[in-house]
Amino acid sequence: MVFSSMTFLMFFLPITLLLYFLNERIRWRNGILLVASLLFYAWGEPVLILLMLVSVGVNYVCALGIERSASAKTMQKIWLIVGASASMIFLLYFKYGAFFVNSAADLLSLSAHVAEKKLPIGISFYTFQVLTYTVDVYRGKAKAQKNPARLLLYVSCFPQLIAGPIVQYADVADMLNARSSTPVGFSEGARRFAVGLAKKVLIANICGAAVEALHPADSAVTMSVLGAWYAAGMYTLQIYFDFSAYSDMAIGLGKIFGFTYKENFNYPYISGSVSEFWRRWHISLGSFFRDYVYIPLGGNRGTAARTVLNLMIVWSLTGMWHGASWNFILWGAYYGLLIVAERFVIGRKRWERIPYAVRLPLVLLLTVWGWVLFYHTNLLLGIRQLSAMAGIALTEQGVTLATLSDPLALAVVRKYSVFPLIAMTACLPIVPLFRKRFSGQWTEVVSYAAATVLLLLSLIFLIGQSYNPFIYFRF
């Protein structure tokens, strides 16, 4: 089930809200939200939900073991390893098992290959959340949850279950025990949800249709320069509005139910450096790798060589987190190299002295190139598109100049007309600037009126659109 489906909007969410607000006791509200969350996940994964239940159950026991072994550090580490292994073993088996085996077979020129397993939806997100719980208990950052139902609610809570943001246990531990759902919180959450739904339905889905139209099914077809650039630009817009839309809806739903989730996006396409881009993009993932990988490795406390190694490890893992495919690994390494170059080759101070008007388009260009690599799980197709963007056509016959345009690209550009300009404008922090400039009651009235219009338009568009899941569901 997805947030942008009529089943969710017309049936699941209204019924859940009705049952939730008919009860005032936190125990009952947690129970209703837990049952709703398990039904939400089981809607698409009726059997694979058992993996999540096992992972949560093992880590529940391990966290209690860690807390009860406070005087025995060795025993605490054993409990931590058992809990982390129980979480990671499913992720490694389903997401990376076939990739590792097949890559090794190709390297050794063996004919033995295994089929890829069906990937449980959202396994990367809920696995990381379970890990943060056990690690936080081990570090003394949080107390072990005595109520297994509350721990399961933390992991399975449907607003952020499938595609984040990755919520660290310490941030919501108190909210599991006591929280308030106020009319103001409900209205603000509903407004945020409506904005997210509009970003998904009115922008991301339309960008996605253009991207699909420009990528031919025949891998032998060479893209024109116009087609390659237009497809890259539309995917750059699609992935931002698609993923940030889910985060908006998750944060909005969380606020409705009394949870406060941290922001996951902060207008990343206005960044003046690659490092800044990653402080604004998928913030919860960056925070996870910083707190649970980069800092434990030593961070930037050692030599420059050690810092470079730590950065490359983190970014290689970031790439692998997104998928078991070489393009994701290269994409992660690509950003690792860019950040290393920015910090140690150019230097932050020297980079910041370059005018923002120069830095902004350069960072955007690097980002667009990165998204092309991210999009193509077939590396050859990704290289062909990047080559076409540079005016070079790679064909089976050899290397030639790419055509500037083609009938398909021209037709797609005409069809979507000024839409990309509208989408690019929506990437800018216009709303925060407007709120800052015109604060007051009328600003709020306009804001809620606009959200209502966006909600109605989204529902109208949904009726005519086919099923279009969120991009990050596959991670």
Fraction in helix: over 70%
- First-last Cα distance: 16 Å
Q: What structural class is derived from the secondary structure elements?
A: mainly alpha
Strand order of the largest sheet: 1-2
Quote the average pLDDT.
Answer: 88
- How many domains? 2
Question: Outline, from the CA principal axes?
Answer: globular
SSE arrangement, N to C: HHHHHHHHHHHHHHHHEEHHHH
Which regions contain 5 or more consecutive residues with pLDDT less than 50? none
- The radius of gyration over CA amounts to 23 Å
Number of helices: 20
Count the beta strands.
2
Q: Assembly type of the shown chains?
A: single chain
Largest sheet: 2 strands, antiparallel
Q: How large is the share of residues in beta strands?
A: under 5%
Q: Can you describe this structure?
A:
Helix 3 runs parallel beside helix 5 (123-139). The chain has helices spanning 6-21, 26-42, 49-68, 73-107, 123-139, 148-156, 169-177, 183-214, 225-256, 274-280, 283-297, 304-322, 326-346, 348-352, 356-375, 379-389, 407-416, 419-426, 430-437, 441-464; strands at residues 392-395, 398-401. 71% of the residues lie in helices and 2% in strands. It is built from 20 helices and 2 strands. With 475 residues, the protein is mainly α. It has 2 domains: 6-179, no CATH class; 185-474, no CATH class. The protein is globular, with a radius of gyration of 23 Å. Strands 1-2 form a two-stranded antiparallel sheet.
